[in-house]
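Issue 218. Parser rejects a valid record. Input:
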Amino acid sequence: MTPGRPVPPPLAKPIPMDTAKPIPLDTAKPIPMDTANAVPAQSSDPAGSTLAAAFGATSPDSGLVPLTIARRAPQEDDVEIAIEFCGLCHSDVHATRGEWRLPPYPLVPGHEIVGRVTRVGAAVQDFAPGDRVGVGCLVDSCRECESCLDGLEQYCERGNVGTYGVPDPRNGSAITQGGYSTSVVVDRRFVLRIPEALDPAAAAPLLCAGITTYSPLRYFDVEEGDSVGVVGLGGLGHMAVKIAKAMGAEVTVFTTSEAKFDAARELGADHVVLSRDEEAMAGANRSLDVIIDTVAAPHDLNPYFRTLRLDGALFQLGLPAEDMPPVSPGLLIRRRLAYAGSLIGGIEETQEMLDFCAEHGVASDVEIVGADHLNEAYDRMVAGDVKYRFVLDTATLQEPSERADA
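Output the parser choked on:
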């Protein structure tokens, strides 16, 4: 186990921001009829953009409502995707309800996208109509800074372009709209190949929850014989358990609820510790090499640091809205411990994660919902009533109207 592994190379060299030029719609390759999946119909406006059915928010308190959005005509490096499934992330709730900041409305969320390629631009060689592909939390980055050139687009020093709710500078600063829709157009450099061995609905959350937990485990080079702790057993936590087990680790789950003991063991956990039981926590002292903390509420980390061995590390993935209790420096110093954060993964690492999950039979536990149940799903996510991720079936979206709302 060696912290600080080399990062993978980027998928492509950077291109200047002004060199991506639109291509005529008829130069993009059509999808063969026998490879097209059944999705709600789409229509095109005279300018060549495509109208897609969607669900999104029009204000912080609007809830999710039917919308029609415009998707650009594919440029030479673009891939057009007919979306089959899109995972629901808790960050979608925060974003649409304006709990982090007031986003530009109308806003279509969704950054766990799986679908089939329908058209590709003239310069696209690595994808073809009919391919099953995915789009995660990023649709672009500067491609020029040190982070991007190292394959770490998630840490782009100029600011990456998120899948929804932000201006896209390479496309006229249009606000990006996410995957609760029937289609999306994305630069090929940010499109991922979904292995056919993966169920497409269960693969969707891998594009956020999967890579968010895989990246720190991979960074710390977790392998057979290592011991990994997972704090919290929700959407992120259940993926951390599955991926760590697939890497060969012995896994301990920390939970505040005895009701989750059986669920943790069903996922593959070797040990389950009730974190509010001081005696049980003391029994886990110096037993772990790395901890993945997925809890997004303020909580005391000091008891978890005591469970780490010399040179261990705790990775914080959950992002509490309020301040956390202070960390004791003495705990870190006495065992040379590291306290770190981690944010999703770059494109190359995300593809590595998808291939790893396909090879080891790892996927998210999902509940598929229709568009008319999205608001109910949001309320259930807030209440913690999901085991473990919701996924939208886009075949349940309505037909697009004749005019775009966004």
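Fixed in the parser; the record now loads. The two ends are 48 Å apart (CA to CA).
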